[in-house]
Amino acid sequence: MLISVYVPLLITMVLAVFAPRAARRLAPRPAAWSLAAAALVASLGWLGSLALLAFAGLVQIPEVAEEGQWSVSAVRASDPVYLTVAGAAALALLASVAGLAVAATRQLRHLRWARRECRLLPGDTELAVLDMESPEAFALPGAPGRIVVSRGMLRCLSNGEREALLAHERAHLRGRHHLFQTLWRLSAAVNPLLRPLSHAGGFVLERWADEEAAARVGDRTVVARAVGRAALATSANRSRPALAATGGAVPQRVRALLAPPPPRRSLPFVAGAALLVVCCASLADAATDSEQMIETAQHAACAAAATSARSVPPHGLCCQHEQPDGPVQHR
Questions:
Q1: SS (H, E, C) the chain
Q2: Residue 242 has what pLDDT?
Q3: For residue range 134-184, what is the model confidence (pLDDT) as tens digits?
Q4: Residue 291 contacts by C-beta under 8 Å, 6 or more apart in sequence?
């Protein structure tokens, strides 16, 4: 456990540095799934490592050891985790759990708001056109989701660009991109080191929708123009950046659309999968070591108790020089 418990923490740092850079150079759809898997495993590994470190310090408290009937000296001999390290891990664990609870509550409120807005929008079709002069275009997740476009936005685009815009927003709903966003935001709340994955994930989702729109329209240049014009039209109004064609790094998205479709590369995915497997294996190994540590400490405590019991004369036994009660009979 001394080494394996720190491996998930190290892998989390590696993913936070290298995963966003790799994701921006890969095909967007598999990149989004890879970032989601990395965020999930890294978050669980982070929480698991902190919990095991905090547990290693908790079992060294004499009162806890007495309640659990194990030997503190045996624990310290088999798993020498300093109490300061265990205390810091416990504080970090509490902060992570609290951040997760706050972020989960916020995301639930956002999803409830989106569903309520879907019900209040005019019409009963997927597309809702608002009679507004300000350019607006975004997707609202719900059951089912809705695509919201203002008349001001429609006037900014040509017929082909309107089709590209609607195909982009439809790709957000069909791919359930809001679930990816939720996962990345929760992982960033658990561990602030994973915030780069959340930022990169937002860009990858927009690229995913761009590629879906390009495949639908059949012209990558039209989609690039639609993305650029929609972004310019809404540059003064960014009240709804989520799941919108104007989100992400627009110049990079336009350059990607004007270039050929990104190739599918397997090496980054193989390397990322190997890191995630190592993270899971290290966490499982550390948990097994913790279980064995407690069993060894309990056996040591039982052995010490048995040795102490053998060294004390049983109560009620008489010494050789003691005479039995009553008169002594002589023959």
A1: CCCHHHHHHHHHHHHHHHHHHHHCCCCHHHHHHHHHHHHHHHHHHHHHHHHHHHHHHHCCCHHHHHHHCCCHHHHHHHCCCCHHHHHHHHHHHHHHHHHHHHHHHHHHHHHHHHHHHHHHCCCCCCEEEECCCCCCEEEECCCCCEEEEEHHHHHHCCHHHHHHHHHHHHHHHHCCHHHHHHHHHHHHHHCHHHHHHHHHHHHHHHHHHHHHHHHHHCCHHHHHHHHHHHHHHCCCCCCCCCCCCCCCCHHHHHHHHHCCCCCCCCHHHHHHHHHHHHHHHHHHHHHHHHHHHHHHHHHHHHHHHHHHHHHCCCCCCCCCCCCCCCCCCCC
A2: 46
A3: 888 888 888 788 999 989 899 889 999 999 999 999 999 999 999 999 999
A4: none
User: What band does 298 get if pLDDT is binned at 50, 70 and 90?
Assistant: low
- Confidence band for 270, pLDDT divided at 50, 70 and 90: confident
Instruction: State the pLDDT at residue 212.
Output: 94
Residues 6+ apart with CB under 8 A from 62: 72
> Quick one: average pLDDT of 301-330?
55
**Tokens 């008489």 appear where?**
318
d(CA 135, CA 228): 13
Average pLDDT in the chain:
81
CB 56 within 8 A of CB 290: yes
Tell me what pLDDT residue 232 has.
84
